[in-house]
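#lab-general

N.A. 3:47 PM
ok so I finally got the sequence cleaned up, no stray characters, all 148 residues accounted for. can someone with queue access submit it? mine expired

B.Y. 3:52 PM
send it over

N.A. 3:53 PM
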Amino acid sequence: MPKMNVDQKVIRELATLLDETGLSEIEWEEGGQRIRVTRATGPAMSYAPAPAAAAPAAAPAAPVSNDLSKHPGAVTSPMVGTAYLTPEPGAKPFVQLGDAVKEGQILLIIEAMKTMNPIPATRGGRITQILISGGTPVEFGEVLMVIE
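B.Y. 4:20 PM
back already:
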């Protein structure tokens, strides 16, 4: 069997892409050489062994998130990706706690597959909770903010 010349830079880029998008598997093929990078899926999004130890502490917070998902003003993630509260690093956040917002106003951006997706307010009101921080990986359906 011929020895395969593996480009570690490609593997690192694919692994980074997995982290950025929240995907569990990605495959790349070029010139008859195929590389597949997968991540073990578990109850919590653990990207490294150290955060996995913090997962039990995060577990009690899940029921609160589940209760908020039923809130009529819950802003949920329409996709898996990385959430950003500012239009660019160092810029002023789109919204802050206590801000009044109008329906359709941009609240945050979710990056998925290198595409920036603006997330608008589904209703007008006041921001009473912001449940994420900038650069946080988010899951589909996860409550990100609450508008009262």
